[in-house]
């Protein structure tokens, strides 16, 4: 029996390594474009640190070749990563070991810290939804079949199986979606300026890309907003500045924890969506700086790197997909009853 269990563990490990591997294939055209982009970015005035983008260990990845889906990365390793994120970054009161719901004021947490927890919980729920919606259903003749796994969805979100926690996780997902939607509407003026060029190396593609992006911003503005970030950090300037810096440090910590993920593909999407959320918060709390930006010249007040823009848009794309997949699961559950 022990030998059989060890064999099963080895097979699961091999499958996880296979499914979680990054496809680093890039076309020659893409490689040339990256060099051109780097040259263009170097010529711009940057007023913020470009993280590890210029590190020799940095790697460009085609996200279309590496969709976010089930990889077999689970169990104690995955649990430790998320447990570390919650324990180290969600402002829990010392009297509570692991706050599954530190949202009530009676817990002693201020609005900002309750919001931070809800954002991380929403991110966690979104990632879990992607894995449930693109689950490895079977593998025949070496060809995997992917699709929604109702059993896995219920295990993570059903009120009974999660002791009432599942619906709250999904509620936090919608909250995160509204936050990032709000950020997109707030950052529109930054991209609407004539000086901002979404450089692709092709003048026509530059114009088309910017037009498409501005259309997205226009759609976000037409959506009724349900979150007013002005209620956050509304205290004295010194206290607000200190709390915002604490938020920033927590996001850096979460990104470092994501580096410990043993699955390459999981780490890729986890870090991308974490940085996307961090960029959204950066936008929300820079509204005054964005409004003061000059039309035809760079400004030290507010700047987004290419990396931040890619993370912001892809993170919002993932959340939008989560909302759509959630609706699909609702239909599947109704039909299965």
From TrEMBL:
Annotated GO CC locations: endoplasmic reticulum membrane
Keyword Endoplasmic reticulum: yes
Residues forming the catalytic site: 263, 266
Molecular function as annotated in GO: FAD binding; protein-disulfide reductase activity; thiol oxidase activity
Keywords from the named record: Disulfide bond, Electron transport, Endoplasmic reticulum, FAD, Flavoprotein, Glycoprotein, Membrane, Oxidoreductase, Redox-active center, Signal, Transport
UniProt keyword Metal-binding, yes or no: no
Any single biological process term in GO: protein folding in endoplasmic reticulum
Cofactor section: FAD
Protein name as catalogued: ERO1-like protein beta isoform X3
Gene: ERO1B
